[in-house]
UniProtKB/TrEMBL annotation:
This is Sugar ABC transporter permease. Keywords: Cell membrane, Membrane, Secreted, Signal, Transmembrane, Transmembrane helix, Transport. Residues 1-21 are annotated as: Disordered. Signal peptide: none annotated.
Length: 454
């Protein structure tokens, strides 16, 4: 006897009216949300997704965009010396700028907490963020100008140098040919004929504008007429030029000025026997010289070109100089973000450390920095992403002759594509390389943000 088991299925309960309304409400909400999101998605697709996909496709074609070349642009990219230099400079930017900014921001954020006018100080440091990169580039291009009369940095450097080293009085002065002065290899001038104590010499120079003479300069005529005393070597250094014309070359005219503050040496057997400086009328004298023959020398220091400062925008310093401008703009940003994290630290931990006898440096190193590690990481990664895309400052600050020495991937991409190279295939390949370098940092930041949200 076989038994047949029949499983009775109970009928599913009908959907209640309340559940149906809830389902329709959810569906309506999703449709409304999609309607609101759709414009943003379209804009994102038009401004981000389409350009990225187009650049990737364009990187596989030649300069004209008509012939498929495969990976030739990518291999060309790593053979081009300019591109390799751009990669090297971008690496310098990524290693140096975010680390310096994060460190400066941390130090300033900690110090600002101890300042009475903290809000005003933060506002002052954050203010450069309101300046566009174009304006900041122009400001620093002027500040880095090599001419001390224009560049404020070189003006300061030259002032400090001249305060300690001094400066030449007559950088443009020179002797007339055939007037008894011979120019040495080191730039100094020496009398051709020997002189002895009791002689008087006149040393005429030209090439000095009357407006460049020091204040209080007097005519040299009276000094040139004075006779040397016994055992004394006397002379005058003068400007061998008569204002308005006239006069005789090689002889001191009544209206010709002396050249004061000029160093003069009495030289014997190749060694300096005595040194003096000319007076306001250009006169000088040596006393107590031994008998014998001497030559009078005007050292090269009298004619040395003035110190012009540092070539901030030369091939060697152009990248550090531009990074300095970037620090000026972004230090306030790092300080404000780190300061916000600092204000949320548990004060009881800091106070407990102080009660246990820890000094401020130990608190900073052992408590503040470890607790701020998540904020410091976010700031650092954000700045890494930002410096990889830097373009404005490099393009504006670096002069044309050193543009290649300062170039980074973003500027190289523009120069190759539109700045004279007209090779948009290679430029697109550079853009794809830049995207690939930025993506890991972006992914790291997004993941860290999601972990913090949980």
């Amino acid at each position: 006897m076989t038994a047949t088991l029949v499983k009775e299925t109970s009928p599913q309960p009908a959907e209640s009216a309340g559940e149906a309304r809830a389902r329709r409400s959810r569906r309506r909400g999703m449709i409304i949300a999609l309607l609101f999101v759709c414009p943003a998605l379209l804009l994102l697709g038009a401004l981000v997704v389409y350009p990225v996909l187009f650049s990737i496709g364009r990187s596989f074609f030649d300069a004209s965009g008509t012939r498929f070349v495969g990976g030739e642009n990518y291999s060309e990219m790593f053979r081009d010396p300019a591109t390799l230099k751009a990669i090297r400079n971008t690496t310098i930017w990524v290693v140096v700028a975010p680390a310096l900014l994060t460190g400066l921001g941390l130090i300033l954020a900690v110090l600002v907490e101890k300042v009475r006018w903290a809000t005003a100080f933060k506002l002052l440091l954050f203010m450069p963020m309101a300046v566009s990169f174009l304006a900041a580039g122009i400001i620093f291009r002027l500040a880095y100008d090599e001419d001390p009369d224009k560049g404020v940095l070189n003006a300061a450097v030259v002032s400090v140098h001249d305060a300690f080293q001094g400066t030449s009085t007559y950088p443009t002065a020179r002797a007339r040919d055939g007037q008894g002065l011979t120019k040495e290899e080191d730039g100094s001038y020496r009398t051709g004929a020997s002189v002895s104590p009791g002689d008087t010499v006149t040393l005429g120079l030209v090439g000095v504008l009357a407006d460049d003479l020091p204040g209080g300069t007097r005519p040299a005529y009276a000094a040139a007429g004075q006779k040397a005393a016994s055992g004394e070597l006397r002379g005058v250094v003068y400007l061998d030029f008569t204002p308005g014309g006239g006069g005789e070359q090689g002889k001191v005219d009544r209206r010709e000025s002396g050249l004061p503050e000029m160093k003069v040496e009495a030289v014997r057997d190749g060694k300096t026997a005595a040194t003096t400086t000319t007076a306001s009328d250009g006169s000088f004298r040596f006393e107590g010289l031994d008998d014998g023959s001497y030559s009078v020398k005007l050292p090269a220091s009298n004619f040395a070109a003035p110190y012009e400062g540092i070539s901030w925008l030369g091939p060697t310093l152009v990248t550090p100089a531009i990074i300095g401008a970037y620090l000026w703009i972004w230090t306030g940003f790092a300080m404000v973000l780190i300061g916000a994290g600092l204000s949320s630290l548990p004060r009881d931990a800091l106070e407990a450390a102080r009660m246990d006898g820890a000094n401020e440096w130990q608190i900073f190193r052992r408590i503040t920095v470890p607790l701020l590690a998540p904020v410091l990481t976010v700031v650092f990664i954000t700045l890494v992403i930002n410096v990889m895309k830097v373009f404005d400052l490099v393009y504006i600050i670096a002069p044309g002759p050193v543009q290649e020495d300062a170039t980074v991937l973003a500027t190289q991409m523009w120069l190759v594509s539109f700045g004279g190279g007209n090779n948009q295939g290679l430029g697109s390949a550079l853009g794809v390389l830049l995207l690939l370098l930025v993506i890991p940092a972006m992914v790291f930041n997004v993941r860290r943000f999601r972990r913090s949200q949980r």
